[in-house]
Amino acid sequence: MRKNIKNTAVLVCICVVIGLLLSLTNAITAPIIEKNQNASANAALLEVMPDGSGFESVDIKNYTLPSTITEVYKETANKGFVIKLTTSGYASDMVIMCGVRADGKVTGAKCLSSNETLGKEKTYGDSFKDKDAAAVDAVDTIAGATKTTAAYKSAIKDALNAVIILGGGSVDIRSEEEILADNLNTALPQGEKKFQKLFLVEVIEGVDAVYVAENNAGYVCVVGEQFIGVDANGTVITEGVENPEAVTTAIAKIKASTLKDVNFKKYPAITDFVISAQKTASGNFVVETKGAGYGIKGGNEYHPASGEYIIVKVAISRDGKIIDCMTVSQAETKGLGDACADEKFYGQFDGKTKENYTEIDAISGATLTTDGYKQAIERAFEAVKVLKGGK
Amino acid sequence: MDMFKTLIIILLSSVFVDNYVLNRFLGICPFLGVSKKINQATGMGVAVTIVMLIATAVTWPIQYLVLNKLGLGYLQNIVFILIIATLVQMLELFLKKFSPALYNGLGVYLPLITTNCAVLGVTINNINDGYNFIQSMVSSLGCGLGFLLAMVLFSGLRSRIDESNIPAPFKGLATTLIAACFISLAFMGFAGVVENIFA
Amino acid sequence: MNKKNNLSVLLNGIIKENPTLVLILGTCPTLATTNTVDGAFGMGIAALCVLLCSNIFISLLRKIIPDSMRIPCYIVIIAGFVTIVKLLIQAFLPSLYATLGVYLDLITVNCIILGRAEMFANKSPVVKSALDGLGMGIGFTLSLCAMATIREVFGAASFAGIAIPFMQNYKIEFFTKAPGGLLVYGLLIALIYVITKGKAPAKTSFSCQGCPNAATCTIETCSKKGENA
Questions:
Q1: Cβ atoms A131, A113 nearer than 8 A
Q2: pLDDT attached to residue A256
Q3: In the predicted model, what is the mean pLDDT of residues C36-41?
Q4: Which are the contacts of A85, defined by CB distance < 8 A and separation ≥ 6?
């Protein structure tokens, strides 16, 4: 028993001595280790802000910053900020780190992780050095990587905006979709933020676009920059509208419009590329047609084409003008041809006629898609010609 | 669901890709020493797996609830090795008393495990990798199973080697190491498989 | 003890009982850290420091430490010195710390250190124990560096991080990977056998000599060898 106590005492003594030695070493090394760790953490930050002296983390919860921003570091001598963002590129998420001086110029940008096809984004950040918000758009794009470029530029813009907000300023950080949603909601709060763009089948003067509330609470008409709310009874509820009659007339016309299916059996000249056709009482036609884009004509032995046509819905007025146009379905190349489903592309056809519908900006890097789309539009014009009784 | 996926990836990668013996070189001594016969290899592998699991179950809470709270992170090494040594002793006594059959199967390997660097390695790695408790347990299970797998595979190979006529300089350990090289080479084929298993 | 005797203790560890290539101890760090010369040298020196300190300390305390409690005592002492060395490396050589990682912690269970404590330091005077630790440490470092040189020169066409110009197109990356380590180690052991013409204690199997548990261990290979310990 006494031996046991003695043995334990020895072990405890050794433990205590070693423990003391350890805590002594720890007291000496702990500050140095902490300094080292900070230095290595700062190394990445210094790469995008080479003249920074030290950095401290900023709690981003205290600010309303663009949603892409994940981390913010403040340069301790108030030279600026380093912003870390995650944005979606062509293939997967890209993590970008961007240093911004207090005067709103980029000190450097770096892609920390990405999986883009060309890998050019790794060095692309250098192009943004010393650029300010106005100059970002003018930076050369990465050839053949439109989506990567766009994602990179929008990330840099987000970082620049964030620095304005962090500096106490305010800036509109909403995306285009968010701005549109906000405008619609202001014009017609009853719509409960759920709106759909109306496919126009009637010629309406003085109104650029019409949105309908999904809960049937009414419509929102866009005239120039103005969003005008119209409730379910057809009354204009937005104040300060210059020409409310134009809006009420337009809504009345839309409500009164009726569509009647056209029976193709009477028109043997209609090709298989025309899927369906409808006619309004006012003599306009709504036609759905197929066009052969990259999905049919493209592809190679390594990347077979999808085999899907681009399906387009076009409303053509009695006098042969395109009233409205939209993409019903497409399976074009992701990141390139799929831009044909974007309103920025098909919106270009509005107001065009059989003579000038080809005068639109092509989708960059997707010639086959653009041609396929034009083919679909051409078939729509042909179909309308047949339906009108021509040959 | 994501949590489940993470756990499966941790398990599979610690068994195949980051195999402790063949890729990270932890626990080489018992791997070379006790893999002559398949029953020895199995016994050792199972014993290591069990000790790894128990050791992780004890060291993880101690690290997070005691050492980190008291700012004594630098005592990690001493505390862990003492815990492992104590656990092994206790397990041995327990088996001896309550299950002599199991003791005969596994108990004899237990004293060798105290200084098995795979056990200390897995407990420290779990902390360094920032795994939570469940992930740590799964990782320990994976490492143990990986160890068992390597031992059993290798014991089969060694019984063939023992029957072969080998040039004198290569007799013994030299051939054993070169044979281990080929098993390790085969395991390198798993690299990249596990990461993309859900992709 | 005369001078010659001391010298032979020192040289013993470097050549005759080289821990890695002859006694076959400390295999894990030998394989794991020898893919670069930097890492191998750092590992060797770190182990040397721990070995030297623990040998001195254990030799000083050899009369106080009770026989039945010796293993836990050794483990505490060794783990303590390992942590001290680790903290110092972390503070003053952060890049080496990043290279060695968890293997630094695992010096604690390196059988060379426990083995020397058990086989030498607990029955020898302080000076001899220190020399033994130094010799073993140098022997360990040298054999690690030799192995790392082979692996790095052939595998990465560089030596201690300095690129070798004319070899750049002939890298055999296999050597820097895990299987390469096993192959080189096996070949080196065979080479030592050839050089010493088989006089070096050729290991027919894995050595249990340094294993502190050898005496209690009941596995056949261990119980046989354990009698030496």
A1: no
A2: 82
A3: 91
A4: A66, A68, A69, A70, A95, A96, A97, A98, A155, A158, A159
For tokens 């050549």, name the residue: C15
Residue B120 lies in a domain: yes
Q: From first to last of its 199 residues, what are the pLDDT tens digits of chain B?
A: 678 888 888 888 888 888 888 888 888 877 877 777 788 788 888 888 999 999 999 999 999 998 888 888 888 888 998 898 888 888 888 888 888 877 877 777 777 777 778 888 999 989 888 888 999 999 999 999 999 999 898 888 888 887 888 888 887 788 888 988 988 888 888 877 776 777 6
B79 lies in a domain? yes
Which of the residues A4, A11, A13 would you substitute to probe the C interface, choosing the one with the greatest number of C C-beta atoms within 10 Å? A11
The residue extents of the domains of chain A are 1-41, 55-166, 184-256, 260-387
Q: Which residue in chain B has the smallest CA separation from C23? A: B173
Q: Hey, which residues 75-104 in chain C have their CB within 8 Å of chain B?
A: 75-76, 79-80, 82-83, 86-87, 101-102
- Predicted confidence at residue A119, as pLDDT, reads 66
**Domain span including residue B52:** 19-188
Please report where in the chains the tokens 């994602």 appear, as a residue. Answer: A151
Q: Does A19 touch chain B (CB under 8 A)?
A: yes
**For testing contact with chain B, the best of C97, C189, C205 (most B CBs within 10 A):** C189
Number of domains in chain B: 1
Crossing angle between the packed helical segments C111-119 and C70-92, to the nearest 10 degrees:
140
pLDDT surpasses 50 at C144: yes
Gap between the Cα atoms of B151 and A187, Å rounded: 73
**CA nearest neighbour of B78 among C82, C201, A305, C59:** C82
Nearest-Cα distance to chain A for B113, in Å, is 22
SS3 label, residue C25: coil
Low pLDDT (below 50) residues in chain A: none
CB contact under 8 A, A18 and C64: no
B114 is a domain residue: yes
Pick the closest to residue B31 from A242, C206, C227 (CA basis).
C206
**Size of chain C in residues:** 229
- pLDDT confidence tier of residue C54, bands split at 50, 70 and 90: very high
Q: How much is the pTM?
A: 0.64
- Chain A hits for C73, CB-CB cut-off 8 Å, are 10-11, 14
Asked if B78's CB is within 8 angstroms of A18's CB, the reply is: yes
Q: In chain C, which residues have their Cβ closer than 8 Å to the Cβ of A3?
A: 66
> Whose CA is closest to A69, among A154, A179, A127?
A154
Burial of B180 (0-12, 13-18, 19+ CB in 10 A): buried
Close Cβ partners of C58 (under 8 Å, ≥ 6 residues apart): C65, C73, C74, C77, C117, C121, C122, C129
* pLDDT tens, residue by residue, C163-221: 888 888 888 888 888 899 999 999 988 888 888 776 655 444 444 544 544 444 444 44
Residue the block writes with tokens 């980190």 = B68
Question: Which of C84, C89, C97 should one mutate to test binding to chain A, selecting the residue with the greatest count of A CBs within 10 A?
Answer: C84
Q: Is B162 contained in some domain?
A: yes
Interface check for B78 against chain A (CB to CB < 8 A): the answer is yes
